[in-house]
Amino acid sequence: MRAGSDGPPPVLLIAAVVLALTATGVMLAIAATRRTPQQPVTIAGVPAPQAQSPACHALLDALPQRLGDYTRAPAAQPAPPGTAAWRRDSEPVVLRCGLDRPPDFVVGSPIQVVDGVQWFEVTDPHAGDAGRSTWYTVDRPVYVALTLPPGSGPAPIQELSDLIGHTLAAVPIRPAPPSG
């Protein structure tokens, strides 16, 4: 040691700082890779007479782990057959396959085509502009419903349209006669 110097040698100080920074970096990396498991999504049961059909099984088997900003989430058990969910925050995106024709889908109903798939939108009249909307495929052998939370954007429908277009063959639409 040098005469008149107080404290540990500079090399020892540098090694201690490097060790502390490395330990902090490792802890941050571990914390970033650990995620709390997603809470299961409760999916309400609705009549879905074709939920066990080969078409629904093919679609469910092909579903992605991500839909835009949403990540696949487990369904709370017992989950209705023919269903799947994705979650970004608290509001999930829910898919149901094998449903009955939507009651409001009648001759003359507006249809939107997304990537070759024809969709019919049903909004919750009690929720106003901030409510969820449900979109039904109307040109496939089974009706598929996608319920979206407010602000979900177009990515979930676009990505599912591509998948549905490759998984389920198109069929002529089957609207109900207009009531009146």
Q: What is this structure's SSE topology?
A:
Elements: H1 10-33, H2 54-62, E1 66-67, E2 70-73, E3 83-87, E4 92-99, E5 112-114, E6 117-123, E7 133-137, E8 143-148, H3 155-167
Antiparallel strand pairs: 1-2, 2-3, 3-4, 4-8, 5-6, 6-7, 7-8
Pfam family, one: DUF3515
Organism: Mycobacterium botniense
Transmembrane segments: 12-32
Task: Report on the architecture of this protein.
The protein is α+β, with helices and mostly antiparallel strands. It folds into 2 domains: 1-34; 54-167, Protein Transport Mog1p, Chain A (3-Layer(aba) Sandwich). It contains 3 helices and 8 strands; from the N terminus they run ααββββββββα. It has helices at residues 10-33, 54-62, 155-167, and strands spanning 66-67, 70-73, 83-87, 92-99, 112-114, 117-123, 133-137, 143-148. Strand 5 (112-114) and strand 6 form a beta hairpin. The protein is elongated. It starts with 9 loop residues before the first helix and ends in a 13-residue tail after the last helix. Residues 30-34 have low confidence and may be disordered.
